[in-house]
Amino acid sequence: MDDLLLKIYMVLLSALVFLLSLYSLKFFQSILIKTKQHEGTTAVEPPGATGWPIIGETLDFGRANLKGFPEKFFYDGFEEVIVYPLVKIYTFSMACWFLLSVDDECLVHELLKPFNVVVDGFASLPINLPGTPLNRGIKASKFIRNEFEKIVKQRMNQMHLFGEGEEKETILPQPPAKDMLSQMIMFSDNNPEDDEANVTDDHNNQKKKKFMSATYIADLILCLMAAGYHTTSTVITVLMKFLADFPDVLNGVLLVLRLAPPFQGGFTEALTDFTYAGYFIPKGRKLYWTGISSHMNPENFPDPEKFDPSRFQGKGPAPYTFVPFGGGAGMCPGYEYARVEILVFLHHVVRRYKWEKLIPGNINERLKVNPYPLPPKGFPIRLQPRTT
Ligand code: HEM
Fold this sequence. Notes:
By secondary structure, this protein is mainly α. It has 11 helices and 11 strands. Strand 5 (274-276) and strand 6 (279-281) form a beta hairpin. The longest helix is centred in the N-terminal third of the chain and has 29 residues, at 2-30. The protein is globular and about 60 Å long. Protoporphyrin IX containing FE is lined by residues 223-224, 227-228, 231-232, 235, 261-263, 266, 324-326, 330-334, 337-338.
């Protein structure tokens, strides 16, 4: 009997080891990116003599050009580029600049590497063992939080505020940078319902305000960066694909968001009893909503699979039928920022470049959702500067 149990355990263990190896193999394959150097150029050597750098080193790929961004965003000497990893450098650099006013390209790249490990950890199996994506993500998040905290504290000092747990001045000078970080540092909770300990009078008879700690702000920044990273990068990549498929349609942002919302859905809770499609949903029931089910409902969008820009002309879709950013009180707070980021990118790329797909495919082929809806292999393209 003991022997039998031992055999069963051995079989289960081997199966587990086999599954884990498959999973890691898939993970490592997924981070391999092929790049090709444009013939006849003397541009900086790509990392890895074989032209098969892993994604971490792909960051070096954009390094030379971040300065002149976005004009020189695409790596000189590569006319064939892979859109998705490059766009992620763009969205991350924008976030560093917009949220923290960090535009030092070395620092951006120093942060990007661990940041990628953090966001990969989000969409991984929940196995926290040494070497798993989740474990690596947790470790990288500690590093990146720490780095953000240093930036926050430095700014707090510039603004004559002090670190966590220390006394805080109430009168703030003009912030050195008008970015999200300054706003967060200046934001104070003035809720009159606050208890006496939190809102007291100082010797100048001014109300002491409750500010957020550097650690908390660093967490919020990381959260905003993560929420706005794959989402906007996916939209831009899919837009590039649709624009390659439909070169005469440049007004595609809304369409892409309907056909391929990067945020697949989310958990929510019923605030009150209600009936939906014949089902009674009691107050407090946990629910999962998906945008794509509204977007693909022919009652909302006739012939829903069709890429048809005219749908958004005139009055546009009925309320709560087009919900890529969610709806109601919980709607995405990064909505306007995402729109600007995507439009700035499109404005520059459309004016400066023409592009064609390197993997030919049916224009109606489905995007692969894993977990973001993307064209195969990160969408390799051939770029040409626009001459007219
Ligand atoms: C195309 C880009 C984006 C899409 C499609 C998108 C979509 C969404 C959706 C559907 C939600 C859930 C809303 C709900 O539960 O009702 C959400 C939440 C959120 N998004 Fe975005 N988002 C995008 C970009 C961004 C950006 C750029 C930021 C930050 C800079 C951001 C920050 C957040 C945050 C913090 C939440 C959580 C809000 C909460 O729970 O109260 N998003 N987003």
